[in-house]
Amino acid sequence: ERRVFSGIQPTGMPHFGNFAGALSNWARLSAEYRHEAYPPQQSDGPLAHPSQLYCIVDLHSLTVPRRPGAPTPAEQTRDMAIGILASGVRAHGYDGPAGPSNPDVVLFCQSHLHEHSELTWLLTCQTPMGMLRRMTQWKDKWQSMNKATTETENLGQGDPENLLAGLMMYPVLMAADVLAYRATEVPVGDDQRQHLELARELARMFNNSTKRTVFPPPRTVLPDLAPGAARLMSLRDPTRKMSKSDPAAGSRLMIDDSPEDLRRKIARAVTDSEMGVTYEPDRRPGIANLLSIMALCQNDLRTAADLAAGVVHTPESLARDLAHAGHAVLKQAVADALCARMAPVHEEVSRLRADPDLVDEILRMGAERARAIARETMVDARAALGMLERW
Ligand code: TYM
Hints:
The chain is mainly α. The protein has helices at about 15-30, 60, 75-85, 115-125, 130-135, 135-150, 165-180, 195-210, 260-265, 285-300, 305-310, 315-320, 325-355, 355-385, and strands at about 5-10, 50-55, 105-110, 185, 220. The chain is globular, with a radius of gyration of 22 Å.
């Protein structure tokens, strides 16, 4: 049986990299309704378990100390929930422009359940330290700090011995998120692939050591139509990933940016000095990134007639159409597609901001239904380890 799980850190509003790599896939999946699981005649009884769970991972965000004056985790969690819903994710309890509430989909906040932390400990006790030290995100951080201190040009980063243990445990908590629901599919961007390999490895090791099949291996699901969408690049430096932590706001598009902001950021995007348009991600990363953004938006804007006719936009097909266009014309076309795609998202963000109670209620219901699944998993995991049954 298929079960989808994915998570996102509460960084306030999502950026367009989050949207391209993850949220647009969540939105697409969440449009699927399992009619057999929710027969209308039983609509007042207890609901079947949801097959799609989307989680705002506030425990993960605690691995990075909060800057003084920054929004609270609560504010950032609410804003992220608004951003996810406005992106078209049809969660239980939410009737949005993309369609009515889908009882098969829940949105919730990680720390509202104890089970994620609890399963993390069980997995931690089965995780060799070496596996965590080999994770590239940890290794890069550790090495950059060691280098900085030995060269005494410590870039304000401090002693690597002060790196928080939570940061090292990050991938185990992430594995616990996925495994608590025995998820089979995890829709994410490219940067999460290694983390999910670890989750598969931990599932395998747990099953082997307990000789029970408690956890199925979760599969990584990347965006398919525009490969560049799995790793959208900074508009200022197209060799780096678009990210929330880049100090330059112009390096990223936010899903609630006004059309003027979107157009300004695209107009200033770094490209190259070559004439014409081609899709060559290695040689022309700036142009390729713009084509990926445009392909993603154009595909989302397809009409029913387009879909019936099998219309698909790819960065390659757009590059062919725009082969002889100047960069200004390309940017105009990208900005047009982007503004058309994001207009309803922008509008929905404003509507949801005015209704914080609705957002809290969606998260509450989501946590309740998620907990029912995670509890069952904990019973099995504890039994597999031979622990004393609890009441
Ligand atoms: P996070 O919060 O950094 O990002 C959320 C999602 O957005 C994707 N993403 C991108 N995709 C394309 N281009 C980009 N520039 C870009 N930047 C971010 C990420 O790949 C991700 O899918 N560790 C995770 C959160 C997490 C999780 C989980 C994910 C915690 N537990 C369990 C899946 C399953 C993270 O920090 O994502």
